[in-house]
Amino acid sequence: MKDLVYHPLDESKEEIRVLTLLPGAWDEPLRGVITIMPFAAKSSHAYDALSYVWGSTDDPASMLVRTELHSLNSVQCDTRDDFAFLVIGKNLSIALPYLRYPDKSRTLWINAICINQNDLTERSSQVQRMHIIFARASRVIMWLGPETSTTKLAFKKIEHINSIWQLSCWSLA
Predict the structure, then answer these.
(1) Is 48 within 8 Å of 109 (Cβ atoms)?
(2) Is 106 helix (H, G, I), strand (E, B) or coil?
């Protein structure tokens, strides 16, 4: 298996990369397709943006990916041996099985994957664009980690605050 090679982005077209997370069962290896897409204001590609803590670089994981140029419209589960290894952080490797659908692909923008972290020029340019990338996303997903007894309590409090806020917003109308 080879290591992943990123295709360069065309800054004049304001391109970004997205990851199409291929479907699979919980215990199957993570597989995805990294695709370059134009990011002009008129582009209508739907993707979800993931916000999460990268965490420690100790104990990294990997996933199988391949890259394609500008073919976001129909990503299929390809069985060819053209996948490469991409090293990802532990927190991301824990999050992705929760975000993967069992029966269909899911398009995500994840900075650790969609930005070539080894290209300092690209990384600088893409980081400056992140606020727009998140603003144009169909959804922004905040990954806080797997459920624990502490997070269960935190979400109950958030739901309670949300219900109060919704009531106060309605009463102001």
Answers:
(1) yes
(2) strand
Predicted pLDDT at 115: 96
Contact predicate 109/18, CB 8 Å: yes
> What does the domain layout of the chain look like in residue ranges?
2-147
Contacts of 69 (CB under 8 A, 6+ apart): 7, 35, 36
Chunked mean pLDDT (size 10), the chain, 173 residues = 81 91 95 88 78 85 85 46 86 94 96 94 94 92 83 82 65 42
Distances (CA, A) of 74 to 18, 36, 99: 13, 13, 20
pLDDT of residue 70: 60
* Cβ proximity of 21 and 32 under 8 Å: yes
Is residue 26 a contact partner of residue 117, using CB atoms and an 8 Å limit?
A: no
Q: How far apart are CA 84 and CA 93, in angstroms?
A: 16
**CA geometry: angle at 41 spanning 35 and 47, to 5°?**
40
Q: Which residues pair with 69 in a beta bridge?
A: 36
